[in-house]
Design brief:
mainly alpha; 80% helix; 7 helices
Amino acid sequence: MLDSLQIAFLIVFPALVIVAALWDATSMTIPNWISAALVVAFAPAALLCGASWAQIGLSFGLGLAALAVGAAMFALRWIGGGDAKLLAASMLWLGVSGAAPFLFWTALAGGALSLGLIGARRAYGFIGVPVRQAWLGRLLAPAGDIPYGVAIAAGALAAFPHSILAAA
């Protein structure tokens, strides 16, 4: 049975990835404090949920590997720096058991997000209605970026039930 401290720590992950997604959708940035908070909160959450030191170590290894892959994707200008850090912090929380579902759901969400934005941008171009919110104007700009943090957050939330912490 989970106690209130365990529940409080387990809520940190979904809450922060949702905040990251909203921030990315509205500003095309993900603040460093979100990924840093996820990294800092992971070890206490994992220990409170009964994860072994081996599981925690493997999760940190996966997080570092995801950071290296994210940095390479950032260098290729495929994703932003905040996306790379959120990817790594999410992989840390999801661990070995959540890694494959995370990558699957993130890729699926990223494809859906990209296709949806392409359609919305085309429709907006045809309609041409002025947008009052600056963030929506950025999102609908014809050559605008894709807020991939939204897809990362969707994948992380979908994979969270498979994580080592949810299993505990």
